[in-house]
Description:
Layout (H helix, E strand, L loop, with lengths): L7 H26 L4 H43 L15 H68 L6 H26 L7 E3 L1 H15 L5 E6 L7 E3 L1 H18 L2 H6 L2 E10 L2 E8 L6 H4 L17 H11 L3 E7 L3 E9 L8
Parallel strand pairs: 2-4
Antiparallel strand pairs: 1-3, 4-5, 5-7, 6-7
Amino acid sequence: MQRVRVVWQIKALLPVVFVLLVGLVLFTAATVTIQAPERHMVLMLAVDGAVIICGVSIGAVAYLIQGPMLELQKKVALISEGNLNVTVSFSERNDEIGDLGRNFNHMTKQLRESREEIETMHRTQMSRAEHLATLGELATGLAHEIRNPLAGIAGVIEIIGRDLPASSPARDMVKDVRLEINQINRILTDLLETARPHPPMMMRSNLNTTVEHAVMLARQQVLSQPIQIELQKALDLPDVEHDSDQIHQVLLNLLLNAVQALNPLQTREGSGTVRVEIGSLDDCARVTVSDTGRGIPEAQLSQIFRPFYTTRGNGTGLGLSLARRIVEEHHGRINVTSIVGKGSTFEVLIPFNAPTPEA
């Protein structure tokens, strides 16, 4: 059965109205019968009753309104001190005061959840900041301590390779050494890019062109492999404000990762496919890079953007970390979904218009 709601103003006024009516009746009766002494006692009792009723009315108003307001005042003071684990006891009432209590309790619950979320995000950001600070120190030292002797080693290997006879089996070893030197150089370059980032040079241009250039270079990398890299452009896509060089770097990294994620059996059978699609989502340009590879276990998805974390034996663990930083500096975001054995999809979202810096 639905309860009937009575607003608190009516509850507070009813006793007062009743007292006034009783007083009016008594006053009329007294005026008519004032000559009768025996009625004086009745009149005095009526006045006393009116006073008692007024007192009860005031007490009722204090109970119905002043009590909850004082409790609310105390709880607000606790919130101002940082204590969000507070609730009011009058939230079960079936009137406006009860509505106020329920809204207050709901508000404090939302504040608690928001504070917990902010604290979690703060811890995450602090952890990332510590990683990047450590990375910067490592990169500066490694660049000077490794690159100079590495250049000398590369020069010596080049001379040795030229002097070896064409039929010498050592030529294959020299080739392998060159590849390893290039790998070390690539690691150092990624370290320096991550540790000493430069802000993006934002320009409004066609995102299709940026993506197409990255796809073209990725196709050059797999010319000798039976891998298909498909591209679906969005010809009606508005120009996007972005740094084409940096976004090109992000997409090329995602494409090469997708190629390396393909199973050897797939590439041998010619069924390995990487698909790139360009479109829009809300107020962002959207680029997805999908592969039909081995996928990423769910336990690793939350770790793949951390510096030095890699799922490949020959990876540096810096590519995805650098990609996320670039996308975030474009005020965008990068998401990933994956199913083990079926493949992964990376989604890059970039706002069409970069936010205006605050003065």
